[in-house]
Specification:
Layout: E1 8-14, H1 37-40, E2 43-47, E3 50-55, E4 69-75, E5 77-78, E6 105-106, E7 113-120, E8 127-135, E9 146-153, E10 162-169, E11 179-185, E12 193-200, E13 203-208, E14 211-216, E15 224-233, E16 246-258
Antiparallel strand pairs: 1-16, 2-3, 3-16, 4-15, 5-6, 7-12, 7-16, 8-9, 8-15, 9-10, 10-11, 12-13, 13-14
């Protein structure tokens, strides 16, 4: 099955041609409410017509409690509760508390449609390049599910065959179940590919280069924000600076709404 874009109308697009991040589209921080601005801030530049996300050698960990995790991330929404509260998006561990309170910003938070990204990854066992959506949660804390359009782990991709992580994560949504899969495809994930997902009540379909690769029959029908990020999982502080920066490239991000919705 091929992706049929004729059923959708384009409503969000960034091809990064202006060589600047549009503040009306992107917040260049990763879940900034759970940490400090210095730790959540994305590192990036523009190279050969694409946005290049970077992890630099001296970049601080996102949170000390998460070990060596370093992140450069763009997202299309943010909000939080008051300082010290547990109210905020994507509570991946129970002990999270708000460090940097955030105003409510809904730059692009669709509740159905089609989203896609053009990515080029790096074959590096310490990194992951990803595109996903998370529930905005401000209206209802249970609206916290995740549509993982693509996770490209650097130790699972190659120039001939790549293993892709795709699916749905429930997080704190009791109506969902974790349903992730590792899919092996004959592609070079270090080259440009388009990763897409369509979703409407009861079903999410995942595509790679417009070809259907997975279907998940679950109901996600609430506002979600886009997340594009490069992670580094650094085991210790012993650093060979010749291996930096770690990079992943993004050539375009698009969002569409269904014509009949």
């Amino acid at each position: 099955m091929q992706l049929d874009r004729s059923r959708f109308i384009l409503e969000f697009e960034d091809a990064f041609t202006s060589k600047r991040l549009d503040p009306a589209r992107w917040i260049p921080h990763y879940l900034p409410h759970w940490t400090s601005p210095e730790r959540s801030a994305a590192r990036y530049d523009f190279v050969d017509g694409a946005l290049r996300l970077r992890i630099d050698a001296e970049q601080p960990a996102w949170r000390d409690a998460d070990g060596g995790l370093r992140v450069s991330n763009l997202q299309t929404g943010s909000w939080s509760g008051l300082l010290g509260s547990s109210l905020g998006q994507h509570r991946h561990v129970d002990e999270l508390r708000v460090v940097s309170p955030q105003p409510e910003r809904r730059l692009y938070t669709p509740r159905s449609g089609l989203v896609e990204v053009e990515l080029r990854s790096t074959i590096d066992p310490t990194t992951m390049l990803a595109f996903w959506l998370i529930g905005f949660e401000a209206d209802a804390p249970d609206d916290s599910g995740e549509i993982c359009v693509i996770e490209l782990f650097g130790d699972s991709i190659g120039t001939k065959t790549s293993e892709l992580s795709i699916g749905v994560k429930a997080h704190h949504d009791p109506r969902l179940e974790d349903d992730m899969a590792r899919i092996s495809l004959d592609i070079d994930a270090a080259a440009w590919h388009t990763y897409s997902a369509t979703w409407a009540p009861d079903q999410v379909q995942f595509f790679v280069d417009d070809r259907l690769v997975r279907t998940v029959d679950q109901d996600i029908d609430y506002p979600m924000q886009l997340m594009v990020d490069l992670f580094e999982f650094r085991a210790d502080e012993t650093i060979d600076t010749s291996h930096y920066p770690k990079v992943g490239e993004v050539r375009a991000v698009r969002g569409f709404r269904a014509i009949d919705r």
